[in-house]
């Protein structure tokens, strides 16, 4: 038996509830790709809160506590200011709010690059304090030694190659990668290097479609695309982008809802009723029983 947490929506409190262990595991995710093919693509979305995790969990195979929370939750200009403490706090919330999906947590900028030992210290803290199943880190060949170091010590790693947001200053922006033959070859080498180092899966972001197809077909581990190709073994999006929480929609995002308008409209109706004193009504106040 394991302890998961059921969110009581009447009080917004997470209550621990004993339940059989049914979470997807790293080996289960790996087995979804057999003989180089994935029959049913893997579904991954970002999540940052317990309630969000609870809503997304039944529909996903993996929930990523992404460092994109820097922009989405905190209004920061990039992912670079995100701290390990921030990732741990949100990671723990998502684990509490989910039951089925494998939860993995992004390693923020500066928490793993200095050395494999530094990465292990950060990753082991993330695993211990959140209860997540794996971590994700950016970088290709340069991170292969670190990935091997972590996986050999019991920390599953999802790699991230192609467009790597933490390296946006070095890359010169967020444009698609792999347009030149040289860059195409480098990203291919990066993907192969992290797979050989022991990564159980790869996020492949913002690359030309032919490169995404080639990488997916050449690796035995699942390749999760974002701005890559439907041919990938799975897809990931920032949930808030998919839900239409922001005005700007990246090219690789499809909006499935327009939640921003829903929230704004509800707030407008609430404000109107407060100002004209039509809220609260008798249904929302306490009066003596007759």
From TrEMBL:
Q: Which reaction does it catalyse?
A: (6R)-5,10-methylene-5,6,7,8-tetrahydrofolate + 3-methyl-2-oxobutanoate + H2O = 2-dehydropantoate + (6S)-5,6,7,8-tetrahydrofolate
Cofactor(s) listed in the protein's UniProt record? Mg(2+)
Q: Does the keyword Transport apply?
A: no
Task: List the CDD domains.
Answer: KPHMT-like (cd06557)
The UniProt note on the cofactor reads as follows: Binds 1 Mg(2+) ion per subunit.
Spell out the subcellular localization from the entry: Cytoplasm
* UniProt-annotated binding residues for 3-methyl-2-oxobutanoate: 67-68, 106, 136
Return the Pfam families for the record: Pantoate_transf
Identify its protein family: Belongs to the PanB family.
Q: Cite the PANTHER family for this sequence.
A: 3-METHYL-2-OXOBUTANOATE HYDROXYMETHYLTRANSFERASE (PTHR20881:SF0)
The UniProt entry, under HAMAP family, shows:
PanB (MF_00156)
Q: How does it assemble?
A: Homodecamer; pentamer of dimers.
Q: What does this protein do?
A: Catalyzes the reversible reaction in which hydroxymethyl group from 5,10-methylenetetrahydrofolate is transferred onto alpha-ketoisovalerate to form ketopantoate.
Recorded protein name is: 3-methyl-2-oxobutanoate hydroxymethyltransferase
Q: Which organism is it from?
A: Sphingobium tyrosinilyticum
Query: What is the gene name?
Result: panB
């Amino acid at each position: 038996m394991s302890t998961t947490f059921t969110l009581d929506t009447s009080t917004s409190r997470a209550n621990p509830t004993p339940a059989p262990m049914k979470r997807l595991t790293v080996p289960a995710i790996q087995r979804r790709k057999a003989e180089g093919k994935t029959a049913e693509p893997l579904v991954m979305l970002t999540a940052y809160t317990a309630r969000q995790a609870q809503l997304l969990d039944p529909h996903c195979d993996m929930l990523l506590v992404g460092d994109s929370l820097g922009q989405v939750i905190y209004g920061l200009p990039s992912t670079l200011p995100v701290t390990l403490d921030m990732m741990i706090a949100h990671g723990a919330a998502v684990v509490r709010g989910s039951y089925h999906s494998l939860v993995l947590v992004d390693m923020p900028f500066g928490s793993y690059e200095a050395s494999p030992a530094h990465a292990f210290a950060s990753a082991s803290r993330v695993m211990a304090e959140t209860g997540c199943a794996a971590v994700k880190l950016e970088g290709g060949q340069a991170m292969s030694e670190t990935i091997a170091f972590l996986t050999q010590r019991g920390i599953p790693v999802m790699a991230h190659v192609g467009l790597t947001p933490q390296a946006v200053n070095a890359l010169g922006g967020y444009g698609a990668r792999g347009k030149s033959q040289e860059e195409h070859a480098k990203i291919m080498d990066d993907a192969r290097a992290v797979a050989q180092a022991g990564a159980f899966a790869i996020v492949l972001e913002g690359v030309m479609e032919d490169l995404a197809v080639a990488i997916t077909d050449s690796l035995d581990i699942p390749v999760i695309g974002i701005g890559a190709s439907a041919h990938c073994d799975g897809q990931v999006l920032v949930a808030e982008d998919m839900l239409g929480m922001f005005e700007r929609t990246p090219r690789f995002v499809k909006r499935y809802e327009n939640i921003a308008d829903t929230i704004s409209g509800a707030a407008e109706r609430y404000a109107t009723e407060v100002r004209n004193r039509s809220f609260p009504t008798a249904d929302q106040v306490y009066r003596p029983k007759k």
